[in-house]
Amino acid sequence: IGKHFHGLVTTSGYGIDELLDPLDNSEANSPVNSMGVNMLPVMWLNDTTLVKADITNTNSTYGWYDYDNKKWANVVMFNDSLYWDEYADAAVGTPIDVDYVSAYYVWIPRYKYQLFNVSFDSSYWSNIQKTNIEFESASSEKSDGTCNGTYSVPTNGCYYTHPAFTWGTGVNKKELDGIWFGKFESSSVEVLPGVYFNTGPQSLLNTYYDSIKLGNDNYQDIYGNDYPGQYYLDMHLTKNIEWGATAYFSLSDYGLGTDALLIYGGGEHDETGGGVDYYNNTNRSTTGNVYGIYDMSGINYEILMATTKNSNNDGLLYGSSGFDSTTLPFSLCSSNTYLDCYDYDMVGNILGDGIGEMQGIQSTDISYPWIARSHHELSVGFFRSILQMEYQSGNYSLTLTRVTAIWDEY
């Protein structure tokens, strides 16, 4: 496999997706056609040693994923194309030198979930249940929550395609097979020359945002992915709706179910898996094993790309994010891409975001309008949300970000 990895991977003369994922019977969408340049499938031998996984998912020793058994698909990215070339040509099972790894991502396959609290009743939290989900293809008709038209509006008990798997609107709308969610919180690691996923704990949100955008541009240039009509990996700061998709998935049978609420923080891990040895701390993973996502209920709040509109709902509240109407225009709200926008004093009124359905609609604090998630609060876990932790003086070290990636077309 060469480094110009744009579409369907082929092995032994036939497409990977023709192999039907014999080690995974869950019917989850395969991630193979949503992998970007510089992504390598990985697994953990004996749950401790990072090795190259079998991208065909046919090797029982080095199988890539098995969602029925809470083994979610993981990939790593490298800080130099030479390392990717080296491992792309290496045999399955080859140990990965983690010093070369710049980021880890986990595949959240597209799904629909059974609606359970469309009225955003805040009392639901006292009797929270696991999320019932069913996988679905991006080419299938979306479920609108009305039980195939039985009801006129989304209704509890009906299935609803999670909105995180729709990117863009109008002629630019794309239905996604899944999303790549950052396995760890972002760090100040240099993922490319001069490009950082996170520029330090005291940086404002716009600095993270700009750095990720620069990273996208550089990946296109450095790895030869800048061709009209081709595909590329769009990395961006995680939105609230993407956090919700991952949280609901974790609350299902494919994750820890309601035990996910017992994940309790401590010992954070950064983008490269640094910090506390994550493979020895699987109690902080959404699957209870090394294949899940870490620290969604951790010591630090994580700021997401989600804010509120002003009192007239005709502009954004920027707070101390570092953005303004030029760098983050109000028009971005209608694009359904890099920003979730909530009507004034109506935060949490979007199905699937894990706020309204879980805790009731939150009030807006105009001083700190950006949404933060996570925090080590037992029995709340990654459904914790707050609007008052947005770069307050003296609390910089408590605020982190996370990165999501999608396979996009331009």
Major β-sheet strand ordering: 4-3-5-6-12-22-15
Low-confidence stretches: 1-19, 191-202, 219-231, 267-272, 388-398
Shape: globular
What sequence of helices (H) and strands (E) makes up the elements?
EEEEEHEEEEEEEEEHEHEEEHEEEE
Tell how many strands the DSSP assignment holds. 22
Secondary-structure-based class equals alpha+beta
Query: Major beta sheet, specifics?
Result: 7 strands, antiparallel
Mean pLDDT: 77
Number of helices: 4
Q: State which percent range the strand residues make up.
A: 15-25%
Rg value: 20 Å
**What distance separates the N and C termini?**
23 Å
Helical percentage? 10-25%
What does this structure look like?
- There is one protein chain.
- The protein has 410 residues and is of the alpha+beta class.
- 10% of the residues lie in helices and 20% in strands.
- The strands form seven sheets. It has a seven-stranded antiparallel β-sheet with strand order 4-3-5-6-12-22-15. A four-stranded mixed β-sheet has the order 20-19-16-21, with no helix packed on it.
- β3 (39-45) and β4 (49-52) form a beta hairpin.
- The longest helix has 18 residues, at 205-222.
- The protein is globular and about 60 Å long.
